[in-house]
Amino acid sequence: MILSNSVAKKIMNSFFSALWSETLKARRSKVPWLAAIGFSLAPLMDGLFMFIMKDPGRARDMGLLSVKAQLTMTTAEWAIFFGVLTQAIAIGGVIVFSIVTAWIFGREFSDHTAKDLMALPTSREKIVTAKLVIISAWVVAVSIWIYLFGLFIGYLVDIPGWTTQLAWQSFLDVLTTAAMTLLLMTPVAFIASMGRGYLPPLGWAVLTIFFSQIIAATGWGDWFPWSVPALFSGVVGPRAEQLGLHSYILVILAGIIGLVATFYWWRSADQTK
After folding, report:
1. Radius of gyration from C-alpha coordinates of the chain
2. Could you read off the pLDDT of 87-143 as tens digits, one per residue?
3. DSSP the chain
4. What per-residue confidence (pLDDT) applies to 149?
């Protein structure tokens, strides 16, 4: 028992060392911070649309009203505001989350530190796990920030139709959408590792967005994992009419496949290349 506790303690210490190292990298880099700041434009634009629809006459006098804005939203209310915010997490999250994931896994190769990292006594599984924990924590933190910032913007615009139940349900929708999008980041991590850099995973992200739009338009989006977060957010109508249990299962399977592939690649990769 003493030996087992000692081994477990060494394993945990090794993991926390890897996690602390990845935390320092993320904290000192501008990429996660710039990505979070850029994503903060979503609630600002959402609030702008609400302002336009709340007072079209004033918005027209200010030169803000457009036909596109009129067609996009018909009324200014919290339900629509939260819906657009959730859609921003689903659609914009694919790009923003992919950028951070590609950076965390691809920077080791762009900075030529991958060889040293793979040669460390810390197991590669712990290194990968630490990277995934950082990505998950960042995604959750940014999603909560976007929601809270959205609440602040909505308060400033004075949007009607507020209820506590709506706010709570919208918060759960934002977190669920973010969680599904996060699951789809594991293939991005794998491609960043296998491609040894930033460009392949970013190309993959653009490709999945392209196909998700086409496949969703054909009515088969519920069978394509990368279309599911957007459909869940209600971008094309009520989710109950767009998704089934199989849709969520496919998202989970895609995440598991990407996770297994990432761990396998790091475990078998040759650090001399």
Report:
1. 21
2. 999 988 899 999 999 988 887 776 656 555 555 556 778 888 889 999 999 999 999
3. -HHHHHHHHHHHHHHHHHHHHHHHHHHH-SHHHHHHHHHTHHHHHHHHHHHHHH-HHHHHHTT---HHHHHH-SS--HHHHHHHHHHHHHHHHHHHHHHHHHHHHHHHHHTT-HHHHHTSSS-HHHHHHHHHHHHHHHHHHHHHHHHHHHHHHHHHHT-S---HHHHHHHHHHHHHHHHHHHHTTHHHHHHHHHTTSSHHHHHHHHHHHHHHHHHHHTT-GGGSGGGHHHHHTTTTS-HHHH--HHHHHHHHHHHHHHHHHHHHHHHH--TT-
4. 95
Nearest to 113, CA basis, from 222, 25, 180, 185 = 25
* CA–CA separation, 39 and 20 (whole Å): 25
Amino acid identity, position 166: L
Q: Using an 8 Å Cβ cutoff, are 172 and 57 in contact?
A: no
Helix/strand/coil (H, E, C) string of 46-64?
Answer: HHHHHHHHHCHHHHHHCCC
User: How far is CA 234 from its chain centroid?
Assistant: 17
Look up the pTM and report it.
Answer: 0.84
Name the token pair of 72.
């996009």
Q: How far apart are CA 17 and CA 96, in angstroms?
A: 27
Is 52 in contact with 64 (CB distance < 8 Å)?
A: yes
CA 46 to chain centre: 18
Under-50 pLDDT residues of the chain = 1-3, 7, 64, 67-71, 73, 272
Check residue 97 and give its pLDDT.
94
Give the integer Cα–Cα distance in Å for 119 and 15: 15
